[in-house]
Every structure is written in C-alpha cells, then in structure tokens.
Amino acid sequence: MSTQNSRALVLFSGGQDSTVCLAWALSRYEHVETVGFDYGQRHSVEMECRQRIRDHLKGGFANWAGRLGPDHVLEAQSLRDVGETAMTHETKIEMTAAGLPSTFVPGRNLLFIVLAAALAYRRAIPFLVGGMCETDYSGYPDCRRETLDAQMRAIFLGMEYPLKLHTPLMELDKSETWGLGQKLGGDALTQVIVEDTHTCYRGDREHRHDWGYGCGNCPACDLRSRGWKKWKAGKV
Fold it and tell me: What letter would DSSP give residue 141?
C-alpha cells in the first residue's frame, strides 16, 4: 500500500458514531486526520469533546498513537443562518409537517462532505470516513446510501479527484455500533465512548447514565440508550 493510499480523513463530530469511525480508520490506515464542523449547533459541547477523545486515543492506544494526524475545524455557520431547526435553535424537538424531525438540518451532511472533500483534495488524502447510517437513524434523507453515492459521483465529476467515502456504520444498528467499538478497541475504547463522546441534542453533560452523558429523552439519547441496553443484553 502506498503512502498516499494509506491516508484517510474522518468526519469527526465528537459523538459515539464518529469516534467508532475514527477507531475504524486508525485500525486500517497509516495516517488519519480528522475534521469537525462548527455550524452553530445547540450541542456545541461536542466540539469540546473532540480534543479529549483524540488525546485519549493518542495516549491510551499505542498502535494508533503514531497514526493520528492533524485535526481541522471548518466553519459552517450558514447552516444556522438559513433557518431554524432544533439542532441550531432553542425550538421544540418534534416531527414537522414535512414528516421529518425538527432536528433535521437541511443540507448539513451534503455541505460537510463537500467541505471534507475539498480539504482531502488539498491534503492529498484519497479516503473519507463518515458515520452515516440508514439502519438506525432519525429519518434524515442525507444519511441514505443512495444520497451519498450520488453526491460522491458529483464530487468526482466536479473535482476530477478519485475520492472514496467509507461508511462503516451504514448497515449497523446502534447496538452493533457499540459492539464494533468494543471489537476495535476493547474495554478501553468503550470507556472513552461512554465518558467522553457526546450525542445528546440538548448538549446535556450533567446527567450521567450507563451509556454516557445526556438528557436521556431526546431522540439521540434514546437511540444510544436502547443500543447500549441491547448490546449489553447480547453480551450476557
């Protein structure tokens, strides 16, 4: 494998899914960089969690320490400016008239992938890794395989750069994501995910549960909690 082909860029939010994806990439590539996006999210605490997670992966996993490269943070505040959603404003988390949850930020993943692709081009990185999933998700259309395949085709046509997007969680439910993290990094990685990752849409870092921190009743907490319980039950 050439040096260039051993390079990957992980879309890294500081959440459970992107942390598992980062571990997945570190187990496969010689050089792994991360990129996060500041889009005015209510749960901006996830941006603070990112560096702690990276520090733990560097300090606690000898096989990965030398592979973890630079971190990048890109501004995407225009997503907040174009309209209110429950992810960017203090509005109620509910289903909308369009049949989508109010946490859906139109164009979010599409913009993130374009920005990550541009960064990968500049950094001579041929692989992106993202935590999108259509098995156990909140109904977001920009998480679907069909959407992502179409966008990557457009990016190839627009950049003439053979960039590939890996989505290792695409067909996993949340319990299987817990299991994949355990397989990749054992109890040590599971502990990092519980203590340091952030998923809660409300940005709650005060309430500690077996599965980590969060309000315990938003859709993200519900998915994470149910996945934890199913995974733990299957381990017994």
Answer: G
Measured CA to CA, the distance from residue 148 to residue 141 in angstroms comes to 10
By residue count, the chain amounts to 236
Q: Which of 53-62, 80-89, 132-141 has the lowest mean pLDDT?
A: 80-89
> What are the angstrom distances between the C-alpha of 210 and each of 20, 173, 175, 194, 214?
18, 18, 14, 8, 11
Q: What angle do CA 218, 168, 160 make, to 5 degrees?
A: 115
**117-167: per-residue pLDDT in tens?**
999 999 999 999 999 888 755 567 777 889 899 999 999 999 999 999 999
- Which domains does the chain carry? 4-199 (3.40.50.620)
**pLDDT surpassing 70 at residue 207:** yes
Q: Of 180, 67, 63, which Cα lies nearest the Cα of 133?
A: 180
Q: How many CB atoms lie within 10 A of CB 29?
A: 23
CA 198, 202, 208, 209 dihedral sign is negative
State in Å, rounded, how far the first CA of the chain is from the last one: 40
Residues forming beta bridges with residue 101, ordered by sequence position: 95
Residue 9: φ, ψ to 5°: -120, 120
CA-nearest of 88, 99, 70, 51 to 7 is: 70
Measured CA to CA, the distance from residue 19 to residue 1 in angstroms comes to: 25
pTM equals 0.87
Cα gap 155→61, rounded to integer Å: 34
